[in-house]
Design a protein that fits this description.
- The two termini are about 20 Å apart.
- This protein is globular.
- It is of the alpha+beta class.
- It has helices spanning about 100-105, 115-125, 130-145, 150-165, 185-200, 205-215, 215-230, 230-250, 255-260, 265-280, 280-290; strands spanning about 5, 10, 20-30, 35-40, 40-45, 50-55, 60-65, 70, 75-80, 90-100, 125-130, 170.
- Helix 3 (about 130-145) runs antiparallel to helix 4.
- Helices cover about 40% and strands about 20% of the residues.
- The protein has a six-stranded antiparallel beta sheet with strand order 3-10-5-8-11-12, covered by helices on one side. A four-stranded antiparallel beta sheet has the order 1-7-6-9, with helices on one face.
- It folds into two domains: about 5-170, Jelly Rolls; about 185-295, Homeodomain-like (Arc Repressor Mutant, subunit A, Orthogonal Bundle).
Amino acid sequence: MLIGAAKNAELEHIFRDPGQSFRWFTHDYPYRLACWNYHPEYEIHLITQSSGTVFAGDYIGDFQPGNLCLVGSNLPHEWVSTNYGDEVLKNRDMVLQFDPAIFSRAADIMPEMAAPRLLLEQALRGLQFYGTAEEQGIDLMYRIGKVQGLQRLALFFELISLMVETDEKIILSSHDYAPDLDAGSAAIMQRVTAYILGNIHDDVRMSVAADLAGMTPSTFSRYFKKTTGKNFVDYVHKLRIGRACNMINQQEEPITSICFNVGYKNISNFNRHFKRECGLTPSAFRKLVPASRTKQV
């Protein structure tokens, strides 16, 4: 589901392991680097457990276990798990980071290495994989973590080849998305987004968000519009509907209950906003995704 938004982000400094062409690792959630961030390296990101909201550029959507994405250079991104309480989600994230220059440099002597060029261009807006490509990509990510040396490198190229050749991928952020990489205001958007997500089931007031940002409501309104490209009310609606999609995917809870749990006071208003964002009603959406409720990685 394409529902646009963006925030300011912090630059993450990545140090490649000595003797390795790329970096592969897992981490828990919460984790100090699991925040709205960007970096020059490309990143293949797999979510192994939990569900929640994914942000990539001006894209907001829901994720479940098995979410597999390729994020390009300097594209801000974040995966926010919901409804996990105080639990630490062990190894929630499996991450592979690489310098895209390895392909352009290698192409000078191995012309086949120019094949990923289009993939890398598309990934500048973020890519998400699905279907057979997702299943095969997940398997390769796990296998890469179990080997070293040439075996690891060969599996990396197999994964890139899969991503190049498959049509089972969607571009996430919009064509004209231009991220504002001013790290100085990242803390503001982190506080505001945390407030919205923490109160998505209840009233979300711009006046409270403005206080968190240390601005007057009118100044904050202009700031928010400039930063995200959306006004505050529309942004909140998109997050509410994203949360509703996640709940429909994962739970058997009645649509009416989900409506109230994401902050809507009546079902007709919920249905109207849901159809505007998703192109179909909540009930029709549920019929499309019954299998995802039991998906495990």
